[in-house]
Amino acid sequence: MVDNQGEEYLFKIVLIGDSAVGKSNLLSRFSRDEFDTNSKATIGVEFQTQLVEIEGKEVKAQIWDTAGQERFRAVTSAYYRGAFGALIVYDITRSSTFESVKRWLQELNTVAQMLVGNKCDLEDIRAVSVEEGKALAEEEGLFFMETSALDATNVDKAFEIVIREIFSNVS
Ligand code: GDP
Ligand code: MG
Q1: In the chain, helix, strand, coil percent, each to 5?
Q2: Exposure winner among 24, 130, 153, 162, fewest CB in 10 A?
Q3: 29 within ligand 1 shell (Cβ under 6 A)
Q4: Strand 10-16 to 112-118 pairing
Q5: Cα of 162 from ligand 2 centre, angstroms
Q6: pLDDT tens by residue, 100-142
Q7: Which stretch of DSSP H or E encloses residue 114?
Q8: Please, are residues 121 and 92 in contact by the beta-carbon 8 Å criterion?
Q9: DSSP class of 149
Q10: According to the lineage, what is the superkingdom (predicted)?
Q11: Which of 112, 156, 88, 142 is nearest to 11 (CA)?
């Protein structure tokens, strides 16, 4: 897509994190609620493209979701290739998914990274505190947000912060 100055913004953003943390639901929540959705299946991965307006410019965010290969830690370099942003997702009710975050980070080389503690609606069975999430994000230089794909808390915000950060880095 080209704006009136002839500029084109297409940002690839990847969702990563352990299996069942809610990556696919975060993406469907984001796309269904706020933006037109185009989904396209490729071999092993799927992405959806969202149009977002930032500072009067149309930005196309191409958000990639795994097709379950993270269960075997078999996410390929093609998945990460060309990515400008990433949401690294854990489940606040399962410490093991939080402990995996550093390993996922090793595979990334993107300009904007958001640590996402998902399922914040499950406060009564929380296993990772907000403070622990914040501390890790600070240590690793990531944005941080707790979200709920179930009740939509902070879902749009998390994606938008990443998209805006990429925009401010490339424009
Ligand atoms: P993925 O493997 O990371 O893509 O995770 P999914 O999106 O498939 O979600 C895994 C499971 O967690 C499913 O049973 C979802 O219904 C559930 N789930 C995802 N997000 C949330 C959330 O924010 N809150 C709650 N309570 N459950 C969630
Ligand atoms: Mg999934």
Answers
A1: 35, 30, 35
A2: 130
A3: no
A4: unpaired
A5: 20
A6: 999 999 988 888 999 999 999 999 999 999 999 999 999 999 9
A7: strand 112-118
A8: no
A9: T
A10: Eukaryota
A11: 112
CA 135 vs CA 111, 129, 139, 140, 142: distances in Å: 20, 10, 6, 9, 10
Mean pLDDT of 38-58: 72
User: How big is the CA angle at 85 (ends 84 and 87), to the nearest 5 degrees?
Assistant: 160
Name the residue at shortest CA distance from atom 10 of ligand 1: 20
What's the pTM? 0.90
Of 21-35, 47-61, 87-101, minimum mean pLDDT range: 21-35
Residue 75 near ligand 1, beta carbon < 6 Å: no
Radius of gyration of the chain (CA): 15
Question: Does 25 contact ligand 1 (Cβ within 6 A)?
Answer: yes
Beta-bridge mates of residue 50: 61
Question: If you count them, how many residues does the chain have?
Answer: 171
Judge whether residue 69 has pLDDT over 50: yes
Q: Are 119 and 154 in contact (CB under 8 A)?
A: no
Question: Could you tell which of 18, 25, 98, 125 is best to mutate to test the pocket of ligand 1, judged by most ligand atoms within 8 Å of the CB?
Answer: 25
pLDDT confidence of residue 67 = 81
Which residue has 């989904």 as its token pair? 39
